[in-house]
Amino acid sequence: MPVQYTSIVDEHLAVRRAAGLFDISHMGEVRVRGPRAAAFLNRALTNDIARLAPGQGQYTLMCNERGGVVDDLYAYQLAPEDYLLIINASRIEADVAWLTSQWRGAQVTAADSIENHSDQFGAIAVQGPRVAEFIGACFPGPSQGGLPVPAITALKKNQIGRFSWAEGIEPVWVGRTGYTGEDGFEAVVPAAMTEAVWGRILEAGKPCGLRPAGLGARDTLRTEMGYPLYGHELDETTTPIEAGVGFFVSLDKGEFMGRAVLAGQKVNGVSKRCIAFKLTDRSAPPRPGYAILDGAAGKNAIGKVVSGTQSPSLGVGIGMGYVPPASAQAGTAIAIDIRGRACPAVIVQKPIFRRPSS
Amino acid sequence: MTTNVPGELKYAKSHEWVRVEGDTATVGITDHAQHELTDIVFVELPAVGRQVKAGEACAVVESVKTASDIYSPVSGQVLAINQAVADNSALVNSDPYTAGWFYRIKLTHPAELGTLLDAAAYRALIGG
Fold it and tell me: Is domain A271-353 classified as CATH 2.40.30.110?
C-alpha cells in the first residue's frame, strides 16, 4: 500500500465523510484449528476467547512472560474449533515464532494445527460512513459461513461471515471492523483475487465517493481515534495496561502468558501510561521521539511522544505518548518540545477526534 | 500532472527557487517540491536579520507525513519573511511561486547565482 494515492488529507477526509478503500494485504493471517485450539489461544492471548461464538471476533493482545506486547491482533472464531488471527505485518515472524514455541509446550493433539497463511491471503479494508450503502452490492446474498446472516449489512461490529462476491468463485471472509473509527468492513481474500475484489468494491463505491486511501491516511485516522500502532504505542517492553488497552486483558479467565505481571500492575499500578494529547495553538505537528514537557511553560521532560501528526479533522497537532501516571490525567497542561520550542498542549480523553453529534 | 517551472527563476537541486531583483533575492520551494510534499500544514521561517549561508538549512516545511528542511540556495541576510505563509501554509501548495514565497534575502555572494540551475536544467533534473 502506498503512503498516499493523491493526498493524505483528502484521503483522510474522504474516509470521515464518505468512504475509503485500503489495500491491507501486508497484514498477516494465522489459522488455528482443532479441539485444543481455543484452550491454546486462551493461554497465548490476553482477551477471553471463550466469549466468542462462531462468526464473532475480538481485539486481543499477545504478550511475553514479562507482560510486554508481542503483538496486538484480531481473533475471529470462524467455526467451532476454527480460529483466524489477523496480525501486524511487521510482527508476522515474531508472532509465528512465539506461537510455535508455545505450541510445542501446549497439550495439543494430532488433530490440532497452527498455520501461517500470510503469504496466501491479501486483505482489503473499506471504511467510512457510506460503506453500508454499497457493500451489499459487492458481496450479495446471505453468508455461507461464520455468522448466519441474510445479508452482509446485517453483520454487527466485530462479526464475520463468508460471502460470495462472484459466481463460481469461492466465497471470502468479511468482518465488520476497521482501524479508522468509522463503520466499515475488512475482507480477507486469497492473494490471487485481491485485485479483482479491490476493483469490484471501488466500482460499487464510486457513486458514494469511495476513493483509494493509503498508509498515511490510515495512520492519521487511527491516531485521531487514539488506536495503538505496534512499534509506536506498543512494543515488547510495554504492557497492555501501560498502553491503555487493559480492557482487553481478561485476568479472570485463568492462566495466560504474561498474566502474573499484568495482574500485579492492575493492583500496584504502572510506572508509565499512554496518553493522548492535542496542541493548544497553531504549531508544527508533533512527531515520534519529541519530548513531552511538564506544564504549559514546559520546563522538565516527563515523557516521550510515540505517535504524532497534524489532525486533518481538527486542524491541530495531535499525538500520543508516555508519561508517569501522576501526570496522565485528562485536562493536564503539558508542552511538546518541537525543535527546541515548548509548544503548549493538553492531555485529552481518547478518542482525540469525536464526530460532532448532530 | 504538469509541473510548473517558470523560465525567469533560478533553481537549486534541493528544489528551492530564487527570484533575483538587483542585490536581493526571493526564495521559495518549487511546484514539484510542494507536489511531492503534499498537504503542507506548517512552515517555519528564518528570523529576519539572520545571516544564512548557501546550503544551510534555514526553514522547515511540515507536511502531514514528515518535516523537511529547506536549504538556502544563496548566502546573505534575511530581509523579510512571508508572514502569510507562516499563518496559512496551504499557500505553498496552491501558489508556490508567488503568494507562497518564503523569505527575501540581501545577497552577500552574488556569484553563487551562477551555480544554480536554469529552468531547463531544473526541468531535466525532475524529469519534467
Answer: yes
